[in-house]
Amino acid sequence: MRTTAHGASAGVAKLGALWASVWFNYLASRERFWLAASLNLAGILLTLLFTPEPLRVPLLELDRRYAYHTAGKVYHGAHTCLCISLPVSRLLLAMLLLCTAPPRS
After folding, report:
1. pLDDT tens digit string along 31-67?
2. Beta carbons of 81 and 91 less than 8 angstroms apart
3. Which end of the chain is more exposed for a tag (fewer CB within 10 A), N or C?
């Protein structure tokens, strides 16, 4: 099941790259920049909000949780935190500071 998700993810990424290479040619340079920036920001936010952080949860426990969810059962085992981890938050802060820095002359 996990490899199927990886394959689907790779396929969607290839379709996105094809779409971008064809349709970005029809946009002005400034529109391309803002579209790419907004899609990248949306991707970062969606990843942070909907990807669980399994930092200290064993892989067997994650597989058990997934098996319960696919069977329609309620899982009462170890929970993964749906919050931003500390290294990710530091990385986002650094990216924000770099993007908002005044241009060098």
Report:
1. 888 888 888 888 888 887 777 666 777 788 878 888 8
2. no
3. C
Token pair of 71 as six digits: 């069977």
Angle at 88 between CA 57 and CA 19, to 5 degrees: 105
Parse the chain into domains and list their residue ranges: 1-51, 54-105
Q: What are the structure tokens assigned to 78, written together?
A: 């170890």
pTM score, whole prediction: 0.46
Q: What is the secondary structure of 75-102 as a DSSP string?
A: P-S---B-S--HHHHHHHHHHHHHHHSP
Residues in Cβ contact with 68 at an 8 Å cutoff, skipping those fewer than 6 apart = 74, 75, 77
Q: What is the pLDDT of residues 56-99, one digit of tens each?
A: 777 888 788 888 888 888 877 765 554 555 566 666 666 666 66
* Radius of gyration of the chain from its Cα atoms, rounded to whole angstroms: 19
Kindly report the length of the chain.
105
